[in-house]
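Bug #77: duplicate submission created two jobs. Keeping one. Sequence:
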Amino acid sequence: MSVWRRDDGYSVSDEASRLDRDYVHTWLATQSYWAKDLPRALFDRSVEGAMCFGVYAPEGAQVGFARCISDRATFGYLGDVFVDEAHRKRGLSKFLVETILGHPELQGFRRWSLVTSDAHSLYARFGFSSLADPAKHMERHNPNVYARGA
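Kept job's structure:
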């Protein structure tokens, strides 16, 4: 478990015990477009099955989050990335993604993947691009799964 600090006091940590699960779940279930109405039990399961990263303000409050779903050998999926509105425009999302991609347990992957509707420019600066050959990729997508109370 590690903590990465910036000169302005903001930090990123992979320490699961530091996560403010109430805050993260509330943000995802009410503020995000991708996890609207996410049930708490499902959120908790998703955190347990992933490597999670929190962004923390100088006074220690959590102000951002991201999950890496990975076998920690060949593949990583970056998801649930956010920085609270009040702390945006400070380079925190860049700091968060840079920290995750540089994490010692997440090196040497053949492929990283993510899905975004609005942050293409953020991820492009880290080498992400549109699928080179979309015909090879498939998905099984259920966008209303939370509304049915899965």
